[in-house]
Each structure stands twice: as C-alpha cells, then as structure tokens.
C-alpha cells in the first residue's frame, strides 16, 4: 500500500480480503451495524415478568418496537450461544435490576455480554432500578451481596467479572422507580427508546446517506435559528450534484414533526418554466399545508392567499432547486408571510439569490470527507462486500478523482462494480490521472461509454426529452422506438443514471447535463446534424435555415412565455427523414401549410396546436401516440382509422372542439382522453367499437348530452370517467365492458338513473356517483363482487339502497347528505369487509339495519341524522370500530351491546338532546380516548359510566335480557379492574350538569385524562380530587356562572379557562407550585401557539406571591442569566371589559420583549363582563435561550395592550406583575431548589392607554414607551 489509509477502511467495519484483524486496534468511530432487534430485555423472571417487564414489553410492542424477551428459550445454568447472538444483534439493551437479579447466573452472564457489546459495538444500555437502590447495585450491597454470595462456591472466577459489570452498569444514566408510578416510568422509558430509534434509523431507507449526519449536527449546533420561535430562512447552496437536496430533505425529515404544516416543492426551476408554473407551485404549496385546494388566479392572487392563510401558522417549507428571484418572491416573499417558528429551507446553485432575498442563514455544501468518500464508493463498487487488498490503491485513486463529489462517487462505483480485472480498473483510471479539478463530465461519461448502443439511445432520449415525466408515459413513448426498453431502463437504474421518484423518471442535473453535452458534441457548429434538438435557439436556427438532416431523431420545443408566438417553415421537416419524436408546447405556427411529416414519426406531442383542423400529414403509418392537449381544433379530422399502430389519442382541454369524425377511430386505440372538451356534445359511434380501448376519459365534458345508443364493444375497457358531464341524462347498455374496474359519474347532475347493465359489472372496483343530485335509484340487482369503493354522497333524491349482499368486498361506502334516504337496506349490516360507513346529514334517515355484523368497520359516521331515534345492536365481533360519530342525532338510547366495541377510541354524542344515559356496559370500552357529550342537555347519571357497581339499573338480570355473552355479567365489577388508560378527553360542555362528583370516580380509573371540558354548566363547586388527575393539561370552565371555587390542580396543568365564571370567589391555592413545577408536556404544547401555561380567572386579583406589582400596562425588569440557571417568566394582568352590548369583545395581547426585540406575543379574546379578569401567562426561558445573553444582564419588558375590539372597549384597571425563578442545578443532588428573586418595585410611566407599536424597538422608542426611565443598566432594578 502506497497511500491508502488502512485505518479508514477498518473504521468502516471491513478488513481487506487476505488480511487479518489480529492485533488491530478497534476504531474509535462506530461501524455501521444491522441489528435483528431494537431492544433486548434483561430481567429476573420471577421478580418482574408478570408485572413491570411484561407491561414494558407490551408498551414497546404497541409503539412498533421490535423487542426480544426470552420466553421461548430453554434456560439452564449457562447462557446459550443463541442468546449471546441475540444480545449482539440488538441495538438497545434494557437491564431491569430487581431484588433477585444477582441470584441468577444467567442474568449476570447476560449483563457481562451486554456491557461488552456496549464497549465494542457502542450498544445503548439503559439500566432500570426496580425496587432496589442504585447504590446497592453499584457497591453490591443488600440483595446483590446475598446473590453473589450464593455463587462463590461454584463460580469464584466469575465473581470479579460480574462485580465489574454490575458497577459499570449502575454508573450509567437510567431510571430509579422509587416512589414513582410504574406507568409513568414505563412512559419515560418508551419515550427514550423511541428517541434513540428515531436518531438511529436511516433518514431515507431507499438511499445510501453518507456524510449527512455531520452536516445536520453542524447546522443544529451552530445555526441557533432552529431553536428559536422566529421565522427563519436557510439557504443551502453549492454546485450541482454536491448533495444540496439530500441534505435539505434530511433536515426537513428531522424537523417536520415540530410544525403545524409542511410543504416540499421539488424542482422549482423546471416547474416554474411551465405555463402558469409559479401559480401552480403556489397552489401546490397551499394544498400541502392546508390540505385542501384553493383557486389561484394569478401570481398576485397567490401571494395574497399565502400571506393571509399562513401568517398565523408555524410551517416548514422546502423549495428545491430555485434559480430565479421571482420564484422566491412568489412562494416565500417575506418573513411576515408566516407564523412564528416557521422555517424555510431553499436549495440553489446561486448564492446571490439568497443574499438578494435577505436569507437569515446560508450554508455551502462541501464535498465528502476522505472517510465519507471511501464509505460511499465502497457501498456501490463492492456492494458492501469486503474489498480485496489489491483494490485498495485503485479505490483510493477513484475517490481522489471524484474529490468528494457524491454523485460522481455513486456513478463511478456502480460502473466499476463487478469488474474483477485489475488491469481494466487501472486502465479506466489511468486516463484521468490529472483530472482532479476537471469537469466531472469525464467521470460521469464512463458509465455511458460502457452501455450497449441502444441503451445509450434510451439514455439520451430521457436526458434530453423526458426527465420528470411519469414512468408510464416514458415507457409508452419509447416502447415503439426501442426494442429493449425494459432492459435499458433497468440497466440505467442499476448504474444510478436514472431513478424513479413519485412515479416519475428523475435524473441528476449533472447526468442530464452530461447527456446534453454528448448530443452537443455530435456537431458543435451545426445543430441540424445532432440527433436531438431541445434548445429553442437551435430549433429556430434549423427551421430558419432549413438545415435539418437525417441525423435528427427527436425535437422538443417548449415556449415558456404563453404570450410569445413564433412562426416556423414546415419545409424543414423534409430533410429530417429519421424523425421519431416531435414534442411542441407553446404558440407555434407555420408560415406555410404543413404538407409533410416523416413517415417514421412515432409520437407527436403538440400542446396548444394552433390550427383548426388536423393536417393529413399527421396521419403517419407508424404513429403510436398523438397528444394534442389544449389544441384549437374545432373538428377533429379524418383518416385515423388507417393508423393501425395508434394506441394513444389525447385531446384534453381542447375547449373549442365540437365534433370528432366517425373515421377518427383508430382500430388499435388503447387510451382516449377527451376531458375538458367543454363544447363536445357527443362522441362518434365508431368509438363504441374500439375493442382494445382500456381507458376512456370524458370528465368535464360539460355539454356532452348522450352516448350513442349503439351496441358497445368495450371488452378491454378498465377505466371510464364521465364525471362532471352535467348534461348527461342517460347511460346506454355497457354490459360488454366486462373488465371495467373504475367508473365515475361524479357530478352528473342531470343523471336520473343508471342503466341496469352497470349492476352486472362483476369486476368493478370503484364506482363514484357523488353529487348526482337527480339520481333516484340504483340497479335493483347488482353483482359487484369486487367492488371496494362506492361513493353516493350528495345524491339528494336517492330514496332507497338495493340489496348489497353480493358486494362482499366493499370497504368504503359513503351516503353523506342523501337527504331522501329513509331506510338503509339490512344487507349493509352484514358487509364483513366494510371499513368506513358514512351517513352524515342524511336528515330523513329513520332506520338502520337492526343488527350490525361489520367486523372490519373502523369508522361509522351518523352525524346530523336528526330523525334517527334508534341505534342497532352490535355483533360481538365488531371490535375494529375506532370512531363512532352520533352527534346531532335523535337517538334516545344505545344498546348494551355497545360494550363489544373494545377498540373504540372516539365516541361523539354531541347535541344528542334525546339521550338520557349510556348503557351500563360502557365501562367495557377500554380503548376509549375521547367522549364528546357537549350539548346533550338531558343527559343524566355520569358516574356509572366509569363504575357500573353504583348503577341501580345495571343488574345482572337486566344485562341478561340483552342475550349477550357472559362477558357482560358485571353486576359486581371489581373496582380494581376498571381502567380507561387511553382516555384523554371528556367533553361535557352545555350538558346542564349541576353536580360533578363523578370526577371522584374518574380520577381513579382514567390516569391519562388530559382535557376536561365542563363549560356552560350549572354546578357550584368542583371536587377536591382534581389534583389527582396526573395527566390533566386543559380544564375549561367557561360560563359556569354558579361556580364559586376551583380547588388545587395537578402540577402538570397547562391551561385553565374560567372566563364568565362570575360567581368565582376562590381560585387554586397552588398556582405558585404549578408555575414552579417542571412538569411540562412539550408534545402537547407544540400544538398550542400560546404560552406554556395559561390561566384565565375571574375576581381573583393578583396573587400575593408576585414580586413586582404595578398600576400600569408595562413593566421592565433586569436579571443575569447563565447556563446553570433555568428561568421561568410569569406575567399577570387584571382588567375589566366594558361594551355597549352583550357582544362586546376585546382582543388583548401580552408582549414579551428581550433586549428591545419582541420575543413572544400571546393573544386572547375576552368578552364583555362586569367582573374583573385575571389573565396569567407563564413561559419558560428554555424556549428563549437564543434571546438571552449568557452571563450578562438581560432586559425583559412585559407589556399588555388591547389590539382589536369588536366595539369600543375600555380596559379599566391595569396591573402587570413579573416573577422569575432560578433553579440551581446540583450534580450531586437530585433535589430541585427554587429561589424567588426579589427587586425593588418601580413604576414605569403613567400612561395606561394601550397603543399599537412596531417591532423591534429602538432605544429611543423604548424610552418613550417607559417614560422617564432609560435603558441605562445602572438605573435598572436587578434581580
């Protein structure tokens, strides 16, 4: 070896063939391992198998974690080789130390192997101290001393090894059960495991990502923008193929879960070149974030929509390959377009674009390091196999030639793969010995030169004409041009010259440019002698000079400016005898009549064809595809019946097309697209005899009135789309279309009935009839054996449903807003594969099937069925139902069989004003997560829902009357068996409740309850047990006008809203403890744009424990911050809102400024009230560390203002208070100590009027706001 660095290869986990690892030092960098299990559990079975370990195993499995637990292994005195391998092939080991752990030699040997794997492979080890003290494990005292003593006689030589493993493991960071609840401990462990897995799994399982993690770590460590709540723009720039997109996508994936909406727009440069390209990108951006389509008329319209709809949303946007400033201006024009915390990532080759647009951060992507380049090259050149030592020098040369360029490494590695001749390797590399900084095209073309001649032709067709097109379209166009197309595409994919993304053929820019260069080199000075023409200037030159030749095989002319019109001389075609593909998009006209096109022409794609009829020369004998979208043809011509090879005819969006000739039906036509031909009134009879037709698209032919009543021979037809044909009244007999799989009549608003023959289409999979507002009936007899999706929503005149017994494979049935439907056929109740059934707003529906046996059903929606009074019995096998919506129905009672829905999570009964109670079997809904009863004003007896033992009518005899299985005999249900561990939301707003004592029962059986909504009720007090809801985040008590006091709340509470509780005289006494607590659910907070904690109380005043109180709407304090101090800022204001009517409303904002810059702003609406509001907002400085200067004095200004009012609203009394906690962190103590920092009170200004201000403030503006006080630190109060 002359220059190769062997240590780099060793660090990759490989040793050269023929060499040995003996005596080799282990590399400091962790190799890449593939593991069989995510987690290995080491535990003492008799201590924890049936409790803690079993529960932990179950929770991990529920989260999709692959866990090994040794139930299936036969135990002996010695650990088996199988178990050793299992430990070695696990990513994480969780060691559960319990009282008898050390008494098992098996456990101790496991532990030794685990610690060895940690040392040698970097395995993650998580110790758990279950009912034992960590110091006893560390020092082998207590149970662990006794356990080891038992082994001294037989295993003396192992004792020191076991002791060392115990000590080492006990010193690791882990969990001590102590007095904690096991459930909470398990949640923490699962969260940590998932965090490790998320950071360990590849960012994209379909790509070899090398060198990405270090770049992301650099961005996260240095660019603090990702931790701030400001709107930030990051520009990633660099040369083509260097990895900009790969890095941006990995960063996007890592951050995506933190945002309200995300959008990834690929290939912005190419997409914006298309007609109306930027407005389409605007529309796509809005759809990806808002999840629904918005009309975008033009660029200015789109800009306004983006600004208005996204200005309050925290979103993540990635724009890939931007090359013009106008693209940025149209899509991400300014920081004020988006809500706080928004992050925008842009990739481009042009750094100046980022500078001009005012990007916050810019990052240049560099090539891979030597270590990373070798790793990437090895993966492709040796397919991850061990390279022989003979190849190491050559491999180093190859990576040196590529200079860390990822694409070049992949292409070159793939090219050299499977070439076993060293001389061949050397010969290939010798030619580029001095090309370190040479154009990378020389390296890329190596793969091209090794291709078969016809595969080269396929590559050049794709690179010059078809990048970004759908895979199916590319294959259709090229299949008649290349006999080995499938082989060629596979070969190109194997060599990484093309790739498929989202069903489109993609190619890296450098490879595409290489293809362009190859064609250009065919004739430097005469474009007419090149095989492919795609540049406008070259095409115009060839047609102007009539300089074409037999060399020309394909032409692609795209005019990006829709207003531009060019004229060409068609005589130039006469010299292009070998032209196979003609692609034109734009306003291209010919100065003469077109009389000739080459006979060998196979594919014509001419969008916006500007002639009223099709010239006869377009009818060539070899023509396979004729794509004339957006044409100006009025009468589609004759002669296509002679095109024996024509398979595709596309006239979509030809809006002035009125007639298609009978002689235009090519006999072998397979695809016919006529959608949006809005003036087309009928189709020729000859089209009805196209026996090979597979796809017929007529959607949005709004003037199409009928299909000819002739015999239809569509034996091959699979897809028929007649949606939005609003004048279509009848459908002829299509029984011959026996292979039809998809049929759509959506929004055929004149359609009264569909032909009975449709009922006999046995292979039909999808049938869409939504918005057929005049459709009255379906075929009486149906044989839809393969039907999976049937949409009949908004068929408002549909009165009955036929027998669906034959549709045994139906999965989705929608009957939403079928307002004439009164009865649902009993057969619907027996569809065993039905997944979703939607009957929302069927306002006249009175009866459902009496018995539901829908064992696959997951979603049942009956919302708004206001005449439905009874709910059917439930079969015992209906355990898949997850969502049940019965809101705004007239249902009076539910059957006891509702208890069979053991997987039900969301149960919506809002506005069920006839419902008085739930059945006594409701307590069997163990998976219940949300129960909505708001507006069910007659509802009574809440307690027995959670504890059936207190329900006097829930006796065993009563249950027996329902003829249910023994599962329901619960007249004496043990309280310890009652558990609603998934229950998170209880909505009882407006239920006319006068007593909420049922909460005392609920706190013992619903430990996960996080939201309790009790607004608009009549109770006067809350039970003292509220503090026992250890997961409670949100408590809503709005307009509980008789409520007099709120008891102490759990420390985890995040939000209390007592707006309108005018009788409130006592608030929780432990608000100070709550704010001091570190129990903050950040996952819950990510969905809330407000502060970390918020309390709206009435008649409460300012709590005495606030350090600063002032009769003003603004205050300034100063404090010193360092890394060992955690700051919590609590602000509170009291005021009253007056108005001239009951609709008076004030929008009040709380503004927090740090260093003269707005850091946070919280807003809330407050209705008119004679009582006084107290609004308390608490926010942690954990979110604001980037705003705080470490080890320096920081100015904090808190300022309240009325931002907007529904009427003239005055805020009578202003008080603002600020409080800060400092938490000292002691490494040697687990106790947390809080200190209340004091300052001398001071008044800031005397003006109590709330006025609007712009941000950030200058020092002078701040002085004006605060009156005589200045920003001089010597004059500020410090704490």
From TrEMBL:
Xref: InterPro entries: Apaf_helical, Disease_R_plants, LRR_dom_sf, NB-ARC, P-loop_NTPase, RPS4B/Roq1-like_LRR, TIR_dom, Toll_tir_struct_dom_sf
Domain TIR: 35-197
Superkingdom of the organism of origin: Eukaryota
Nucleus as UniProt keyword: no
SMART domains the UniProt entry points to: TIR
UniProt KW Repeat keyword: yes
Keywords attached to this entry: Leucine-rich repeat, NAD, Plant defense, Repeat
GO biological processes: defense response; signal transduction
UniProt GO molecular function: ADP binding
PROSITE patterns, per the entry: TIR
Protein name per its UniProtKB record: TIR domain-containing protein
Protein species of origin: Cucumis melo
